[in-house]
Amino acid sequence: MLDFKNVSLKHGTKTILTNVNLVVAPRKITTIIGPNGSGKTTMLKLLSQTLQPDQGRIVFADEKVAYLEQNNELFEPLTVTELLEIGLTNEVPDSEFMYRIIQRLGLVEMADQLVDELSGGQQQRVWLAYALCQRPDVILLDEPTAALDVHYQVELLNVLQEIQTEYNLTVVMVLHDLNQALHFSDFVWLVRGNGYVDRKTAQQCYDAELLSSVFQTPVQIIEIAGKRQVIVELS
Ligand SMILES: Nc1ncnc2c1ncn2[C@@H]1O[C@H](COP(=O)(O)OP(=O)(O)OP(=O)(O)O)[C@@H](O)[C@H]1O
Fold first, then answer.
1. Which three-class secondary structure string do you get for 33-86?
2. According to its UniProt record, which protein family does this protein belong to (predicted)?
3. With 0-12 CB in 10 A as exposed, 13-18 as middle and 19+ as buried, what is 161?
4. Which residue's alpha carbon is nearest to atom 26 within ligand 1?
5. Band of pLDDT at residue 90, cut at 50, 70 and 90
6. CA 38 to ligand 1 center in whole angstroms
7. For residue 164, how far is its CA from the centre of ligand 1 (angstroms)?
8. How far is it, in rounded angstroms, from Cα 183 to Cα 175?
């Protein structure tokens, strides 16, 4: 169980959340979408307890939560394998699991390289592997595809979805790409930046009026090869 119960939070004078009640769907993928500065990262920080609400509370059972922030830094030079082994040490070390994650995230060839010497996109995959190696019940991911090319964006989300299903993980992530958010999620939280958050199923979000109002930008929903796609109208 991981819920927002009557949570209110301001950053300075800016209202981020007002009496928000939300249930994180267990063993499902929830994606947070919304405009820049609306409070998406703040919500992940609340769920990870790196930030406390002004009012209300985040309700936890005894889930193990792994939080992958937008920017991650190493404080000493480590190879990919060395970093992932640190992730494993909290639990019964499971190098077989670690090797599967290395394979699934396409990291085999760089397993012995220093993390700092990898490209931004490669490092992003390594940090996701690190979070998974902690064997969390809940994984919080802030823009996990941000530095990736389109191939690896889709690849990473596919692998994440497979691992989520296989290990019954609860995933809460922030994405900016609306098509990816709706395609890979069960639930979507739409953060409006005025204190309010709508919780919808991903299917309910294929709604041009809804998305246009959240982003204050005209969008259309069209169908390509039988699949709905969100198109942002360019002026
Ligand atoms: N520690 C802080 N102190 C003061 N204001 C903050 C702090 N952290 C965030 N804010 C402000 O709160 C608002 C929400 O920030 P947050 O990072 O949660 O937004 P976001 O939706 O994740 O944005 P983006 O899409 O740009 O990553 C922003 O206006 C931001 O400037």
1. ECCCCCCHHHHHHHHCCCCCCCEEEEEECCCCEEEECCCCCCCCCCEHHHHHHH
2. Belongs to the ABC transporter superfamily.
3. middle
4. 36
5. low
6. 7
7. 28
8. 11
Query: Token digits for 149?
Result: 């090319």
Q: Which helix (H) or strand (E) holds 215?
A: helix 208-215
Q: Is 14 in the pocket of ligand 1 (CB under 6 A)?
A: yes
For ligand 1, is residue 70 a contact (CB within 6 Å)?
Answer: no
At 117, list the tokens: 């010497």
Strand bridging mode 29-33 / 65-68: unpaired
Give per-residue pLDDT as tens, 159-169.
999 999 999 99
d(CA 203, CA 95): 38
**Average pLDDT, integer, range 16-30:** 96
Q: What are phi and psi of 182, to 5 degrees?
A: -75, -35
- Distance, in Å, from the CA atom of 85 to the CA atom of 185, rounded to the nearest integer, reads 29
Neighbours of 99 (CB within 10 A): 15
Tell the residue number behind the tokens 């992958």, with chain if given: 68
Top pLDDT among 8 and 148 is at: 8
The string of pLDDT tens digits covering residues 96-144 is 888 889 998 999 999 999 999 999 889 999 999 999 998 899 999 999 9
CB 222 within 8 A of CB 231: yes
Judge if the beta carbon of residue 38 lies within 6 A of ligand 1.
yes
Residue with CA closest to ligand 1 atom 17: 41
Complex confidence, ipTM: 0.97
